[in-house]
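Most newcomers find our protein records easier to grasp once they have seen one. Each record describes a single protein and holds just a pair of labelled lines. A learned vocabulary of local backbone shapes supplies the integers on the structure line. Nothing more is needed to start thinking about how sequence determines fold. The record below serves as our worked example for the rest of this section.
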Amino acid sequence: MQIFYIQRHSLIRLLNDIPIVHFSFDMWTSANYLALLGVVGHWINLEEQACRVLLGLQQLHSAHTEENQGHVIFFVLQEFRLSKKVGYFTLDNASNNDTALQFLYKHLQEQGISFDPLEYRLLCIGYMINLAVKAFLYDNEIESICGRNKEDVKDLLQWRTRGPYG
């Protein structure tokens, strides 16, 4: 996988030849309480190599809303001339990610660009595995994990007595 560290204008020229770019973005708060939104572009280059680049790392001065996220993402698409090359978005389960894509849909639609925020939204498998493992290790709602099968509940409780690594 190639990771690019190049100037903006050179990256725009590079991306000009790429037919479709996929994205991931995530919102987090830094240790010094800055709200940050990172936007990463992913594509396959002409030599069929997987590539990615940080397209934006924006501090948000207000709430983590879909509108604030959507503005940053839309700005990144405009800045790098990617509005007509939007592919899939791989994101975690945060509900504001869904609504950020809805915001993006409205703005792309105004430009005559077709984009389906439901079809082009993928869930990050690493995030999903993390949620499943946390539920299995620590969730006190045993029925949400095992259902009502008493044998499964018994096995899970026995496994947990051995600690998190069993």
Q: What stands out?
A: The chain has two domains: 2-123, 125-166. The radius of gyration is 20 Å. Helices lie at 8-16, 66-79, 95-110, 125-138, 142-146, 150-160.
